[in-house]
Design brief:
This protein is mainly α. It has one domain. Helices cover about 70% and strands about 0% of the residues. The two termini are about 20 Å apart. It contains 16 helices and no strands. About 35% of the residues are buried.
Length: about 240
């Protein structure tokens, strides 16, 4: 049985690591984060007001992230970043937006065409998130596949974190369907190991990463062309 590459020691060390460029951005913006939290707490109970507040106030942070020339988003990178995100911000919606903006910026690193960077900057500053690429970028046959392949790398990093949490590489819903709807005994055996594994390996921090990226990063993948999706992911 394949074992996760991550260990508890790796994860705990990554939570304390402040060397990642995105972590450095967050640390350098402590005053901004403090003021953001003080104002956000006044509107957080009203979803509409909270999301409008984000749109109006996220630009300085989006600018700093988009100024970065290079960074990686391996599993431990994501853990380091999200540890600092938790220290810097108290609100939930800002986590969703960062789980979108950071991977989107990562996706365009290495693309020389300025129109990609300009679009990501505009959308992240004005809307707080990027979902659907405009037609002129989707028609860029050189750079569009590159962008989505880099997002695929992020998805694989998140899958590795989930593998550590759950003890299985398969999608849990798909595994349950195989086990209980189709009577797959091997799937049922694998599924039975999830609960004791998660009791030992899962925690609220890692669960938060999964939830935050599910809401923030997930929409970035929604419009990925099927032919690229099939190249990157093994279908369940």
């Amino acid at each position: 049985m394949e074992e996760p590459i991550l260990t508890k020691e790796h994860i705990e060390a990554a939570k304390l690591d402040v060397n990642h460029p995105v972590v450095q951005v967050l640390i350098s913006m402590q005053d901004y984060c403090k003021q953001f939290n003080e104002e956000y707490v006044k509107v957080w109970q009203d979803n509409k007001l909270a999301q409008e507040f984000l749109k109006q106030n996220i630009a300085p942070l989006a600018d700093k992230i988009n100024e970065l020339d290079e960074f990686s988003l391996k599993p431990l990178d994501i853990i380091s970043i999200w540890s600092q995100v938790g220290k810097s911000f108290s609100g939930l919606y800002i986590r969703y937006d960062l789980a979108n903006i950071i991977p989107a910026k990562y996706g365009v690193i290495g693309i020389k065409s300025p129109k990609w960077r300009e679009f990501i900057i505009h959308e992240s500053k004005s809307k707080g998130k990027i979902v659907k690429l405009p037609e002129y970028l989707m028609n860029d046959k050189e750079n569009m596949p590159y962008f989505y392949r880099r997002l695929g790398d992020v998805r694989k990093s998140l899958d590795e974190i989930d593998f550590y949490r759950n003890g299985v590489k398969e999608n849990i819903a798909s595994l349950a369907r195989k086990a209980f709807k189709y009577g797959d005994k091997e799937a049922e055996k694998r599924y039975s190991k999830i609960a004791p594994w998660t009791k030992e390996h899962d925690d609220s921090f890692l669960g938060g990463i999964s939830e935050n990226f599910g809401n923030g990063f997930g929409p970035l993948l929604y419009f990925m062309p099927d032919e690229i999706r099939k190249q990157i992911f093994v279908e369940d």
